[in-house]
Amino acid sequence: MVERPGRIEGKVAVVTGGCSGIGLATVRRFAEEGAKVVIADLNDDLGAQLAEELGGTYVHCNVADKAEVDNLFKVAFDTYGRIDIAFNNAGISPPEDDSILDTDLEAWDKVQLVNLTSVYLCCKAVLPYMLEQKSGSIINTASFVAILGAATSQISYSASKGGVLSMTRELGVQFAREGIRVNALCPGPVNTPLLKELFAKDAERAARRLIHVPMGRFGEPEEMANAVLFLASDESSFMTANTFLVDGGISGAYVTPL
Ligand code: NAD
């Protein structure tokens, strides 16, 4: 039998929020396809365990802290000598971020920091390495809520994801001739701890949302990981500044099947 190399064989990939949900599925998928993975998260026990299992590296990193983000990419570069892929994915969706009428400034700021400022910090930190190499693929996790409005608001979350989407587009355009691609992953609702926490206690809330998804189900983290793998690999070599929707059809729907 002929052994095929992995789809990102030998590439070095940094994944933030790599200990749970979409990040975790992606770290596993990247490793399966031959990448050296650098996992960044706050969950040190799980992170160390994962790094050992996958033969990668774990770095404790609060993505909202500039010094910790700079250190993350420095460790990745110092360990492996290059950085090919940055999946800037860590994010939060806390219950105190709700309707604009009920969301105070503290709740607003916390979500902006972890979801939007973090992506600015990660892109700013990784770009010099990629510019030096004249190659790289950055994937930032936005969301379908960056392009669709909801009456069931999480105002800071939606605004943060809109910011991630615009920033990604701009960076994709700016660095297109330097060999660096920058794309946004826009997941629909995905079955992860983040979503489960939101709907666990309230089946009616989940059903209210599912009715808008043509496929009639939430996505799975592995389905996001496959999309991220495509954006990370050379298979997507003519794609940049893209809004990559992986959403079960939600953004294309008007009336959904019964
Ligand atoms: P998750 O809660 O399962 O995982 C998020 C991970 O990020 C956790 O391991 C957590 O420890 C880590 N994290 C949180 N704050 C951090 C910080 N300050 N620094 C470093 N790590 C931190 O979430 P998920 O559902 O996998 O979400 C991943 C991304 O996808 C997020 O940006 C989220 O907004 C986005 N997203 C999720 C959905 C969904 O339905 N689940 C839909 C659209 C977009």
For the largest beta-sheet, the strand count, sense and barrel status come to: 7 strands, parallel
Based on DSSP secondary structure assignment, what is the total number of beta strands?
A: 7
* Helix percentage: 40-55%
Number of domains: 1
CATH architecture: 3-Layer(aba) Sandwich
Indicate the CATH class.
Alpha Beta
Q: What are the low-pLDDT stretches, counting only 5+ consecutive residues below 50?
A: none
Q: What share of residues are in beta strands?
A: 5-15%
Number of helices: 8
Structural class: alpha/beta
Strand-and-helix sequence, N→C? EHEHEHEHEHEHHHE
What is the mean pLDDT? 96
Radius of gyration: 18 Å
CATH superfamily: NAD(P)-binding Rossmann-like Domain
End-to-end Cα distance, whole Å, is: 47 Å
Distinct small molecules: nicotinamide-adenine-dinucleotide
Strand arrangement in the largest pleated sheet: 3-2-1-4-5-6-7
The dominant shape is globular
The name of the CATH topology is Rossmann fold
Folded structure, characterized:
This protein is α/β, with parallel strands linked by helices and 258 residues long. It has one domain (12-191, 220-246): 3-Layer(aba) Sandwich (Rossmann fold), CATH 3.40.50.720. The protein has helices at residues 21-32, 44-54, 66-80, 105-133, 155-174, 193-199, 203-210, 221-232; strands spanning 12-16, 36-41, 57-60, 85-88, 136-141, 180-187, 243-246. It has a seven-stranded parallel beta sheet with strand order 3-2-1-4-5-6-7, with helices on both faces. The longest helix has 29 residues, at 105-133. The chain is globular and about 50 Å long. The structure holds nicotinamide-adenine-dinucleotide. Nicotinamide-adenine-dinucleotide (NAD) is lined by residues 16-17, 19-23, 41-43, 61-64, 89-93, 114, 141, 143, 187, 189-190, 192-195. One of its GO terms (molecular function) is 3-oxoacyl-[acyl-carrier-protein] reductase (NADPH) activity. It is an enzyme of class 1 (oxidoreductase). Its EC number is 1.1.1.100. Pfam families: adh_short_C2. Belongs to the short-chain dehydrogenases/reductases (SDR) family.
